[in-house]
Every structure is written in C-alpha cells, then in structure tokens.
Write a structure and sequence with these properties.
Layout lengths: L1 H8 L4 H21 L11 H10 L7 H6 L5 H12 L3 H19 L4 H7 L5 H12 L3 H7 L1
C-alpha cells in the first residue's frame, strides 16, 4: 500500500523511494524463504554479509563499516570474506551494484546518471568504467538496446 501510494503521488524522488520500498519487500520475501538454510559463509561474518546485501546501494558503505557488524577487524574480515567468496569485499560490493544497475537499466525508466546514483556510485563516469569492466560493454550500449 505504501509503495502504491508513493508511486501515485509522484512526489520528488518518488522513483527512488518506490524502488527502495520494492526492494524492502523483496528482501523480506527472500528472508522468509531462506530461513533455516545453511549459512553461505563463515558464521563470524554472517552479520556483515547480511548488512552488505541490505545496504550495497548506499554510496558511503565501507569495508570497515561492514566488518564492524561482525565485531572483527577489517583485515580479518577481508581474509574470511575472500576465503568464502573468492573475491574481496570491495569487489563483491561493486559486483552487487553493477548487477543491480543492469536491472535498473533494463527497465528503461532511468537515465544512466540516475542508475549510477541509485546503485551507490557517486560518479557516473566511474560507474560506466566499472560496468564495462564487468560486462565488456558500456551501460549506454545496453540502454540503447532496450
């Protein structure tokens, strides 16, 4: 109901707020469907990984802040994370953002700058650089195909 009301009012920033509400709903659905499953990572860093998954679109998320959630040092967190995921937390964060960006671009509703900011990048040029590094093509080429 809140999502529908937000979308219909069309107040300033309504697209972002609606997206946030929708992702909140999806996160709740995911949490309900995964209760009782085996952890995907070391128990010591589960809280941090959950925090990362819930907050990857915030531009000011840092590895130190993520590590704090599990009460471990940043160095130890990076070591455990890389052991479990095969990449650094920063690489994982960028990959999450880029995958999210691809979905937003696919909707056709947002400019590339809006997508960059909605995914946690504060520089659309850096976003384009990272996108191309992951997918091998620029985000504008993906957008133009839609």
């Amino acid at each position: 109901e809140e999502l529908l009301a937000c979308w219909q009012k069309k107040e300033r920033g309504y697209k972002y707020k609606s997206s946030a509400l929708l992702y909140g709903i999806l996160a709740d659905m995911y949490a309900e469907n995964t209760e009782g499953e085996q952890p995907l990572c070391n128990e010591k860093i589960q809280k941090s990984v959950r925090y990362l998954l819930d907050n990857f679109t915030k531009e000011d998320v840092t590895t130190a802040e993520i590590a704090e959630r599990s009460y471990v040092s940043e160095v130890y967190f990076r070591k455990l994370f890389k052991k479990d995921f095969g990449i650094t937390p920063k690489q994982y964060l960028v990959n999450l953002r880029i995958k999210h960006a691809e979905k937003l671009i696919g909707t056709g509703y947002y400019s590339l700058q809006e997508v960059a900011f909605a995914c946690g990048f504060n520089d659309s040029n850096y976003f384009s650089y990272r996108f191309k590094k992951v997918y091998g093509v620029s985000p504008i080429s993906i957008k133009n195909k839609k």
